[in-house]
Specification:
alpha/beta, binds adenosine-5'-triphosphate
Length: 297
Amino acid sequence: LIQIMTPLNFLGVMYREIRQALVDMDEMFNLLEQPAEVTDKPGARSLEVSGGEIIFDQVKFGYDPERPILKGLSFRVPPGQRVAIVGSTGAGKSTIGRLLFRFYDVTGGAIRIDGQDLRDVTQESLHARIGVVPQDTVLFNDTIGYNIAYGRNDATQAEVEAAARAAHIHDFIAGLPLGYDTQVGERGLKLSGGEKQRVGIARTLLKDPPILILDEATSALDTATESDIQGELNAMGRGRSVIVIAHRLSTVADADRIVVLEDGRLVEEGTHEALLARGGRYAELWSRQSLDEDLAA
Ligand code: ATP
């Protein structure tokens, strides 16, 4: 029995990890042939994105019914704006991204994109219009070209290269003996954290979605790489509605709006300057983080 259980267990663990990493659920289900928890309604329509306004309206959710994580959360991402979600560890920031991608359904309230409740649209159309740059980009044991084009099978080599250039990884790839045909993954080339993130950025640029979820990397990148990548992420966000799941505050100061999450609810909202001037929860998180950074320096 143990022999049978172990691989199943492994698959279970892998499945959960990948779901946590916010990759394309459709692909996951194809790979593992697991039924989706969330299914399309009969007659579900395709999501039509015009401006890309996102509304969380009194959203309630918990992974376990006994333990609510979001307790009536409301906020709005106006079309084309960048909204950062901050809050202490475990506050539910990544959960917001997972709900927007509809990995789970809300248990109360609603999430709407341009007026359409996520439960009324097809998952395929939803996933096609939302790009996710996860904390840790999942790479497949295939060529680096395949990994960038992943999700856009019809992309031409010129399109793949243009995306790689914009993500500042083209020169690195072009310098490899096999270029875009280089194998990556377990048996191939191992990419650094920053290189993997750039593959993730290139992949998302190629998909060209009107809505973006940036699940900010917590992995340690050196400061120079981090600020370069931040610049590339900012450039990618222009003209799109962006939700930044911010695990650190240093990168959110220039967001159009910052939503402060506490105990499953919004406690403060505003620009970095306005929130600092207010001297509330955000100001407290900010001064504590600055102190931690000073101590670490
Ligand atoms: P951090 O900044 O530490 O990453 P976060 O604000 O992003 O935290 P979430 O990942 O949204 O937090 O998690 C919110 C709560 O939900 C946590 O208490 C976490 O333990 C719990 N949680 C997250 N994923 C699951 C899951 N798949 N099943 C059960 N509980 C979960």
